[in-house]
Amino acid sequence: AQSVTQLGSHVSVSEGALVLLRCNYSSSVPPYLFWYVQYPNQGLQLLLKYTTGATLVKGINGFEAEFKKSETSFHLTKPSAHMSDAAEYFCAVSSSGGYQKVTFGTGTKLQVIP
Amino acid sequence: DAGVTQSPTHLIKTRGQQVTLRCSPKSGHDTVSWYQQALGQGPQFIFQYYEEEERQRGNFPDRFSGHQFPNYSSELNVNALLLGDSALYLCASTFRGRSSGNTIYFGEGSWLTVV
Description:
The complex is a heterodimer. By secondary structure, chain A is mainly beta. Chain A has strands at residues 2-7, 10-14, 19-27, 31-38, 45-50, 56-58, 64-68, 73-78, 87-95, 103-104, 108-113. In chain A, strand 6 (56-58) and strand 7 (64-68) form a beta hairpin. The termini of chain A are far apart. The model of chain A has no long low-confidence stretch (mean pLDDT 92). In chain B, the strands form two sheets. In chain B, strands 2, 4, 5, 6, 9, 10 and 11 form a seven-stranded mixed sheet that branches. Chain B has a four-stranded antiparallel sheet with strand order 1-3-8-7, with no helix packed on it. The relative contact order of chain B is 0.33. The chains are: A mainly beta, B mainly beta. Chain A binds chain B through residues 32, 34, 36, 42-46, 49, 51-52, 90, 92, 96-107, and chain B through 31, 33, 35, 40-45, 48, 50, 55-56, 58, 90, 92, 94-109.
């Protein structure tokens, strides 16, 4: 069984400040981990993913995340927030293999204050 | 190269009715999954189709059924609609090849409102 816990349903940061969105996972097998972003009234866009190899993963729009097995965490960061980053972010986990069922967290809504 | 396309984008149905949602996977993809995203929630896995068969199923009642066609496109059918079925229905596609970790692509979704 797999699960994801996102800490904080709402996060507010000032424009230019560090963005940190927290995600902890539970998985009985080596996990594949994802962060997706969803803008209002739109579908999901993949920001980044971890499968194997390097634990620091860089994604689009300046986001990155670090896989920490000992902490079962996969937190999302961005050094400097932009107004355009305001959206909902979902952390997700799946098992390896081409037929992945993805389990999502409940989401964190990011607000960027000018 | 078109991504995952879904239709219709929005629809309104009455309780007890039936609805069919459609999905065309990204070119080269052979596996289609459906997710339900209720307002304020994360997407929940409904089921997955590969080689025209349902391969995995989430915790959804039999009112939710699907189909995959030889061209890999898929339909999601929901019978006897309930108010609680109002949600964004997302289709996702991937290639179930030998290489693991294939990226999953999502469509823009179909917004279903049940009144």
